[in-house]
Design goal:
single chain, about 290 residues, Immunoglobulin-like, 2 domains, 5 helices, 10 strands, about 25% helix
Length: about 290
């Protein structure tokens, strides 16, 4: 005699088998072959249409883009500023007597300034008239590319060039720090022939510790001839202008918090979106031992 539980179990198994394949109606998983064919055809057409719409949208968007200049540029009113060598977390700390502690900074400056060697600049870039923009407009749809760039020779950094003093003053406790503005396509950082320039100062509690500063080029200027910047692809040999600041008699064995900022008659001195725009703050500590 077959028990009731066994009957129910057998019936459920038969139902599953019939759901998977019904030999009477020729249905697989509850659908006939024609039904499966129609639904698969529907989803095939649906996803092909979605893919086609995506490709068409991307194609139209790419038609609006310029390979050499951003079509829509969310440009900051005030560009950022950075130092070289960077150090850890914008901290430059070393001991005069410990050669290894400052040799890394010297090596970093050597590598950074290699493209600024006079021989490289003469070979790749032009001698430009100073104190005026080096404008290179396109002629309608005819692009004036590649655009030329003005020479920034390493010798312009004088005592901070690494040529007269291969240690950049680090060995003597008179280190050089290089400053550069972030590249912004089309930026015009001055008017009426007035180039932007850099000033540096110490936080209030450190003002008596910073000592005398020397700037190279004179007055710490970013000459107008290095602007506007046309982008990496259009201006392949562009060399960013630099300003070097040399600390002549900074107080030893103490932290000195320094802030350098850009000054210009067209660049705002502050930004509501970024309080560090147009300036950079770093810590400098030189130990005598």
């Amino acid at each position: 005699m077959v028990k009731e539980g066994e009957k129910n179990s057998g019936g459920a198994a038969d139902e599953w088998k019939e759901f998977l394949w019904n030999p009477r109606t020729h249905q697989f998983l509850g659908r006939t072959a024609s039904s499966w064919g129609l639904i698969l055809l529907f989803y095939l057409i649906f996803y092909i249409s979605l893919a086609g719409m995506f490709v068409l949208t991307m194609y139209i968007m790419l038609l609006t883009l310029d390979d050499y200049k951003p079509t829509y540029q969310d440009r900051l009113a005030t560009p950022g500023m950075m130092i070289q060598p960077k150090g850890d977390s914008l901290e430059i700390v070393y001991s005069i007597k410990d050669t290894e502690s400052w040799d890394l900074y010297v090596q970093a400056l050597d590598a950074f300034l290699a493209p600024y060697n006079n021989s490289q600049q003469v070979m790749n870039n032009d001698v430009c008239p100073p104190d005026q923009y080096f404008v290179q407009e396109d002629s309608g749809k005819v692009r004036n590319n590649p655009k030329r760039s003005c020479q920034f020779n390493r010798t312009m950094l004088e005592d901070c060039s690494g040529l007269t003093d291969r240690y950049y003053g680090y060995r003597d406790g008179k280190p050089c720090i290089l400053l550069k503005l972030n590249r912004v396509i089309g930026m015009l950082p001055g008017k009426d022939g007035m180039s932007p320039y850099v000033t540096c100062g110490a936080k209030a509690k450190d003002r008596d510790k910073m000592g005398e500063l020397m700037f190279y080029p004179p007055n710490g200027t970013f000459n107008l001839m290095y602007f506007p910047y046309y982008g990496k692809k259009a201006q392949v040999n562009y060399t960013q202008p630099l300003v070097a600041v040399k600390f002549i008699n900074i107080t030893l064995d103490t932290d000195v918090n320094v802030e350098c900022k850009i000054n210009s008659n067209t660049i705002r001195s502050h930004s509501d979106r970024d309080k560090f725009a147009g300036r950079v703050a770093f810590k400098l500590r030189i130990n005598s031992d």
